[in-house]
Design a protein that fits this description.
Layout: E1 7-9, E2 21-28, E3 31-38, H1 42-63, H2 70-79, E4 84-85, H3 89-104, H4 114-120, H5 136-145, E5 152-155, E6 158-161, H6 174-188, E7 194-198, E8 201-205, E9 213-218, E10 225-231, E11 236-241, E12 246-249, E13 252-255, E14 258-259, E15 264-265, E16 269-276, H7 279-304, E17 308-313, E18 318-320, H8 322-325, E19 338-341, E20 347-348
Parallel strand pairs: 18-19
Antiparallel strand pairs: 1-9, 2-3, 3-7, 4-6, 5-6, 7-8, 8-11, 9-10, 11-16, 12-13, 14-15, 16-17, 17-18, 19-20
């Protein structure tokens, strides 16, 4: 259950003040998770870390598509044409959210294509390089079965489908969904200032002392930071990209983000970043906009209701919505080619860009 993201936390604090900053790391969801809290005692921080790590592990155990889990059991039941009774509220909630977000994205965020993901080999924890991509015939066979979230029937806690090709994989939005839950729990525990960073996808609350949280967005080439942005209280920053989760065959790059319309990896954008207060929405939208490509991302962003969007194409050109352009900061000596357009596709000027961080 993996999705590549490209955000580097820039934790900047004054010398002598780090006694207020507490950090913990753990490995779950197939990625490194960083938890940072500010302004509490070491005891409070450690108690919080322990609770959050247990919640994360529980989510991982419930939602894993390919290892033994309730979600895996649900997938097996669907393949057999059976109805599955969900006993865990978190699994039922994420199923409902996944269906709603898929419909909102016009099906470009489609968690029902688990079989396609497996066909390409992206279900594996460790990708094998130089593997052969699947044949056109096998891709067409799965496309003909056309599994979508519309095929998923949810009646109270009874889940079924009349399409046995439907196989659920939440890798494209599970981390965004998870950080919403975790930040809510942290607020309930009395934590007012924190960041949770799930392999680069993050959500922040409060501030770091008197400063807002400040994060760098990694360059999709894998070298350095492309830009930086201030993260306000309750905001989530989610990025989908093709830099880390991929394999190559005969020099061709195959990304893990699969276009459900043609069964092939999406190619227009190397990374897409979305900021929103709803982590699940931001995560799903980042995937959907990657799939939508240059011709359709404006429409999908409008339909999903996201206004803070940054996209980077293969040539390194950066595309912005006007709202995002006002927030992102670049280093003046590393300014890329920039295109700002509103959600109707109208190209605007670059007057509101900031060039230093």
């Amino acid at each position: 259950m993996k999705k590549t993201s490209y955000i580097l936390i820039l934790i900047l604090f004054l010398t002598g003040c780090n006694k207020s900053l507490h950090q913990a790391q753990l490995y779950v969801f197939g990625t490194l998770v960083g938890i940072t809290v500010w302004g509490v005692s070491e005891r409070e921080a450690n108690e919080t870390f322990d609770i959050i790590s247990k919640d994360l592990q529980s989510m991982h155990n419930q939602w894993h598509s390919w290892h033994k889990s309730p979600l895996n059991e649900l997938n097996q039941s669907i393949a057999k044409g059976q109805t599955y009774t969900v006993s865990d509220d978190s699994l039922l909630s994420i199923l409902i959210a996944a269906k709603e977000l898929s419909l909102k994205s016009d099906g470009l965020f489609n968690p029902a294509i688990g079989q396609l993901i497996k066909l390409w080999g992206f279900h594996e924890d460790e990708l094998k390089q130089d593997r052969l991509p699947p044949s056109k015939e096998k891709i067409f066979q799965l496309l003909a079965l056309a599994p979508t979230m519309n095929d998923l029937n949810i009646q109270d806690n009874k889940i079924s489908s009349n399409n046995p090709a439907l196989q659920l994989d939440f890798g494209a939005f599970a981390k965004g969904y998870a950080v919403d839950i975790l930040i809510k729990k942290m607020r309930e525990l009395g934590i007012k200032n924190a960041i949770i960073n799930l392999g680069g996808d993050l959500k922040a609350i409060g501030k770091k002392g008197k400063q807002n949280w400040f994060v760098g967005i990694r360059h999709p080439s894998g070298t350095g930071v492309l830009a930086a942005v201030v993260v306000n209280d309750g905001e989530t920053v989610m990025t989908s990209g093709n830099y880390e989760r991929y394999y190559k065959n005969k020099g061709k790059h195959y990304s893990h983000i699969i276009d459900p319309r043609n069964g092939k990896p999406a190619t227009d954008f190397t990374s897409v970043t979305v900021i929103d207060t709803n982590g699940a929405l931001a995560d799903a939208a980042a995937t959907a906009l990657t799939v939508a490509g240059k011709q359709d991302w404006h429409r999908i962003a409008t339909e999903m209701g996201v206004k803070y969007v940054m996209l980077v194409d293969e040539a390194g050109t950066v595309y912005f919505t006007p709202a995002m352009a006002k927030r992102v900061q670049f280093q003046p000596n590393k300014l890329p080619k920039i295109v700002i357009s509103n959600l109707s596709g109208l190209i605007l000027g670059t007057d509101h860009l900031h060039f230093r961080f």
